[in-house]
Amino acid sequence: MNMETITIKDIARMCGVGVSTVSRAMNNHPDINEETKMKVMEIIKQYHYIPNNSARNLKRLDAKVIAILVKGISNPFFMKMIKIMESEIQKKKYSLVLHHVEMNEDEVDVALELIKEKRLRGIIFLGGYFTHTKEKLQQLQVPFVLSTIAMTQKYQDTSYSSVSVDDIKESYKLVDYLCKMGHKRIATIVASNLDESVGKLRQEGYRMALEDNGIEPDDSLIYVMNHELDPYTMENGYAVMNQILKSENVPTAVYAISDTLAIGACKAILESGRKIPEDISVAGFDGIDMAYFYSPSITTIRQPIEEIAKETVAILFDVLRKKVDHQHKTFEAELVIGGSTRKID
Amino acid sequence: MNMETITIKDIARMCGVGVSTVSRAMNNHPDINEETKMKVMEIIKQYHYIPNNSARNLKRLDAKVIAILVKGISNPFFMKMIKIMESEIQKKKYSLVLHHVEMNEDEVDVALELIKEKRLRGIIFLGGYFTHTKEKLQQLQVPFVLSTIAMTQKYQDTSYSSVSVDDIKESYKLVDYLCKMGHKRIATIVASNLDESVGKLRQEGYRMALEDNGIEPDDSLIYVMNHELDPYTMENGYAVMNQILKSENVPTAVYAISDTLAIGACKAILESGRKIPEDISVAGFDGIDMAYFYSPSITTIRQPIEEIAKETVAILFDVLRKKVDHQHKTFEAELVIGGSTRKID
Which of A48, A105, A217, B283 has its CA 20 to 30 A from that of A131? Predict the structure, then answer.
């Protein structure tokens, strides 16, 4: 059968019902037998029947473009963000151009090139860090939003928007919890000092929490991600944790600044014959699905991924269409306690 | 300091070295002290200095577009594919438009709309299934490649390309291994029968392997993903495994047709107080990083993700630029044995 010729009449005939019944099934009308409805929907799915009006509604996609420039695309955290943003952008009848910015690339330069694309209406910068002069940012002639990006220099600027959690505060929350559970030797897996990103802010929260709990931060417990491996990956956490386990000062708890790093660390701990949390407690940051499904579930800071992604797109379109002012929005994150951390004496 | 005015001379001055030393550091010249080089690179990174020539080399991105239409974007397997494809497409100086196709949407209709975008040069269909008439496919006026898509109807067609593994064969390989390890009651978590995708092929491989090992396939051991949850997710595997554990016929092994499902299944098994693999063996499919880092590592079929992604883009550009014929390429996948499966008596 030629699929293109399939009509609602064909579907009705194949199901042995009338056209109005097919229509009721498709529109979720209450006045239809559940079994009949199931049957109709199965046939519709099987033959990939598309009702005329929804075919008509297929938006023209050649019109307008929103670009997402992402740093650190390997992290499932960003993957989920991109998925939600993509779907939100599609709802607004815009197309999404996805562009990966290398760690050593300047995202504003990349954006300036992208803007030569005449139909580009807005930009979302996702992940990484952002230390640009006001002059440079002013060159960006389309509205943009920084999403989950650490801004070490806060411009109090209304020339762009930002959406994120307070990385210092949330990191503090987690490390404070570990301290309250009796941990005094808490190692951390962080980003290099050259990295101005969330890694820096999360490390700051770690230090502040220790100090407020009367623990002198010990530099020998601060481990930097392996720069030969991709940052924020399980592989990297695994490599660094093996290094920690070989040290003379094995900690009672490890706080990795992403869940991916934490999961890699768990692998190294378990492989060494140690138990989690009996021998070492492990905590992460982000709240990706994997942290929950890991065994044991990983104690983490759960960022409201969906809210952040949706708000990022919403703000961009508000600025774009309603010409409202730019805004800076900070979401609360949640300390989620899993089986990977325990109280010690 | 205004970043835009930073020159190689500024960098040299800040490092206390000559301009030629900065140049050597940037070009990885052997004739430079390692410590000096590190210092220079740190300053360069810190000030986001971009050498002139690399700024010149920034490609114009407004030119040409490749679209990826993906079904099932939640699966980390596709995420990794997209990341690699994106980077390959960028190398070719094309832009990537990412478009998510809903499970009940017709990807060819979506593609036809996208083609109205005049700069669209090629399409990659990623994931899902593909049962369209030749007539319909002929409407697609730009080259396209099907990547990791099950084609239950093989057209032997040279009007498009395809890249994938042999899902029946690879699934057979895994289930045959479980049989050879002594398992006779092997449950499987599969896609609905309405789903013509890889799910169907993998189920076929499962049945064939059982039969070749003298085991009668038992329909009560075939579990369909929960249709109220996103397919191929950990959450879904968790829900279905809980259902399996409540059944009267608890199997000795479970084969989930994706690693994400398998990881969710593990969570349910461990929560019930059972051990993996002592009480139940678990196997997945795909070979995502998470399957390896899970504890225990999950026995799986590792698809050559990187090769598949790169070959998909390479073939598309061969057709596009060199006008070579379309091709259908099948990659070998690898059975990776983890700690999640064991031999039974």
Answer: A217
Question: From the CB of residue B196, how many other CB atoms can be counted at a distance below 10 Å?
Answer: 21
CB contact under 8 A, A194 and B289: no
Cα–Cα distance list, A73 to A4, A86, A128, A285 (Å): 39, 14, 10, 16
Contacts of B238 in chain A (CB under 8 A): 293
- Going from the C-alpha of B63 to that of each of A22, A65, B70, B118, B341, the distances in angstroms are 45, 14, 23, 10, 51
* Edge-to-edge order in the sheet of strand B95-100: A328-331, A161-165, A144-147, A120-126, A65-70, A95-100, B95-100, B65-70, B120-126, B144-147, B161-165, B328-331
| Residue A156 pLDDT | 63
Q: Which two tokens stand for residue B339?
A: 């700690």
In B, minimum Cα distance to A234 occurs at B293
pLDDT tens-digit readout, B292-341 = 999 999 999 999 999 999 999 999 999 998 888 888 999 999 999 999 99
pLDDT tens figures, A270-325: 999 999 999 999 999 999 999 999 999 999 999 999 999 999 999 999 999 888 88
Average pLDDT over residues A233-243: 96
Helix (H) or strand (E) holding A302: strand A300-302
For residues A298 and A264, the answer to whether their CB atoms sit within 8 Å is no
Q: Looking at the partner chain, which of A100, A136, A233 has a beta carbon nearest the beta carbon of B4?
A: A136
Do the Cβ atoms of B132 and B69 come closer than 8 Å? no
Spatial distance between the Cα atoms of B185 and B178, rounded to a whole number of angstroms: 10
CB–CB of A229/A235 below 8 Å? yes
Q: Which residues of A touch B90 (CB under 8 A)?
A: 99-100
Question: What is the phi/psi pair of residue A2, to 5°?
Answer: -80, 120
Tokens (6 digits) for B18: 């000559």
Nearest to B123 by CA among B135, B137, B134: B137
Residues B227, B240: Cα–Cα separation, whole Å: 10
Handedness of CA B252, B257, B259, B260 (dihedral sign): negative
Q: A253 to chain B nearest CA, in Å?
A: 19
| Model pLDDT for residues B124-170, shown as the tens digit of each residue | 999 877 777 777 888 888 999 999 887 655 556 778 899 999 999 99
Inter-chain residue contact A50 with B109, CB threshold 8 Å: yes
DSSP alpha helix (H) spans, A92-154: 107-115, 134-138
Residue contact A194–B290, C-beta within 8 A: no
Tell me which long-range contacts B213-219 makes (C-beta under 8 A, separation of at least 24): B213/B176, B213/B179, B213/B180, B215/B179, B215/B184, B215/B186, B218/B185, B218/B249
Smallest CA–CA separation between B332 and chain A, in Å? 24
Q: Which of B61, B241, B242, B274 to mutate to test the interface with A (most CBs of A within 10 A)?
A: B61
| Confidence check: pLDDT of B58 > 60 | no
Alpha carbon distance A189, A182 (integer Å): 20
CA distance A138 to chain B (A): 12
Residue whose structure tokens are 């026995």: B299
Interface contacts (A, B; CB < 8 Å): 145
d(CA A345, CA B66): 59
Average pLDDT, chain B: 85
Q: Which domains does chain B have, with CATH numbers?
A: 3-57 (1.10.260.40), 65-165+305-331 (3.40.50.2300), 168-303 (3.40.50.2300)
ipTM comes to: 0.74
